[in-house]
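I am hoping you can look over what I have pasted underneath with an eye to the fold:
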Amino acid sequence: ASHKERAQIRGLIDWYLFEAPYKDRRVMLIIDANVGMTESDVEMLHTLEEAGSAVTIVANKIDKVKASDYKRQMQKIQEKAGMRRVIPYSAEKRTGVQELVKEMME
C-alpha cells in the first residue's frame, strides 16, 4: 500500500482502538514468539489497557522457536505479560487455534 493508504489505515485502527464508543472489545496483541515482547509491544499493551481494552497476547510463529528454547522463551514472554493471558500460536502447525477462537468468543 502507498504511504497515504497506510496512514489512512493507521488512522482507522487508532480510531477503533482508542476513540470508538465500543467498550466491550478484546484486542489480540500479536507478537513474534521467537523475538519475544519488544519495548514497542509492551508500550502498545499499556496504551491499549489505558484505553480500556481487554488484551490477550498471541505469541505467533511458536513453531519457529526451537524445542529446547520453548519453555524459556515462553517464560520470558509471560514475565513481560504479567498476569495477562498468552496464547502460543502457529497457523502452520495449527497450535493454539482452539484457544484463540475460544478467547475471541468470550
Remarks:
- DSSP finds four helices and three strands in the chain.
- The mean pLDDT is 92.
- The CA atoms of residues 29 and 57 lie 5 Å apart.
